[in-house]
Amino acid sequence: MPVTEKHHILSGSDAGELLSCKTSLLKRMRGFDVVFQRYFLSTREQMSELPDEEGAVSYIVQPPLGGQTVALWLYLVKGADVSYGNGVTYLKADGMEHIWISSLNSGAEDAHSQTLSVFEECSSILERKGCSLADDCVRTWVFVDDIDRNYADMVDARREYFDRCGLTPETHYIASTGICGCPAVKNGAVIQMDAYAIKGDVKHRYLYAPTHLNPTYEYGVTFERGVRVDYSGRRHVLISGTASIDNGGNVLYPGDVSRQTLRMLENVEVLLAEAESGWDEVRMSIVYIRNAEDYEKVAEIIRERLGNIPYVITLAPVCRPQWLVEMECIGIE
Q1: In principle, which of 43, 45, 126, 182 could form an S-S bond with 145, CB 3.0–4.6 Å?
Q2: Is the pLDDT of residue 233 over 90?
Q3: Mean of pLDDT values over 158-183
Q4: Whole-structure pTM over 0.85, yes or no?
Q5: What angle do CA 205, 261, 315 make, to 5 degrees?
Q6: Cα–Cα distance, 151 to 146 (Å, whole number)
Q7: What pLDDT digit, counting tens, does each position of 117-126 carry?
Q8: 131-159: average pLDDT
Q9: Measured between alpha carbons, how far is 44 from 22 in angstroms, rounded to an integer?
Q10: Which long-range contacts (CB under 8 A, 24 or more apart) does 118-123 make?
Q11: 191 contacts 142 by C-beta, under 8 angstroms
Q12: How far apart are the first and last CA of the chain?
């Protein structure tokens, strides 16, 4: 049986409404298994209203906008062998194993120590499956509470850990989004991470879009703009968090959220084109904005460009205060 993948974005005025929508969807999607879930919460307290679930389930306080208080990114697959561990989903199909890891966090004393801890835990999970962070991890999401204060410590710790793993400008980094988000746990965590790895015969093609973007290490961070992964006759394009930036690393159109949104979309389109893909192949997207009052301007542009592509817009400041909007997406062929 060929593998079929579906991404859905659901939202609700409260947790009860969201869970009702999810139940109805899963009844319609007979034969599909849940691989990965991310709940976008307005408050930590909403987590107590959600059921305990198996596998990779991510909870992050990152309020959805547009009149809703909770949202869910739901990734479903049909035609694969899916099993669940503690915060991890394992998917086997066509001789490949896909590993989704969720909600890694730490009670260590500061953002630097917590970042090292979550990357160490991620590596440990992968090593138990015969994988490594450097060779097999293709995507991470790093959520940073109070990003204007803690982002620099996260960046320094990630660079330190990557150096240990042999991830350098001369080798490669990992596609990633580093964005504001408050861990839903109450253990003092200010850093939380989700990750995705693929074990098997995978070809990685990292995306650079040099006409529009510069290598991230030029301004001190360590992630890839995006990656195309080819395996078993399939292709996934994973676009990292992308904002209104030029190929000199400069923020474009400070203070103008509409022009920043258009440039952001242009940058994403160029990355997709480099991967021999386009908007028609995009299956889901997340858009992050710094100021809630910018929602209508951003939403109007995003609706026009993405159309029926599932997406969510959340309140989540980007890593530089001048950036008002950022987005990521996944393409599948």
Answers
A1: 182
A2: no
A3: 97
A4: yes
A5: 95
A6: 8
A7: 999 999 999 9
A8: 98
A9: 20
A10: 118/142, 118/191, 118/192, 118/193, 119/157, 119/158, 119/161, 119/193, 120/161, 122/193, 122/195, 123/165
A11: yes
A12: 17
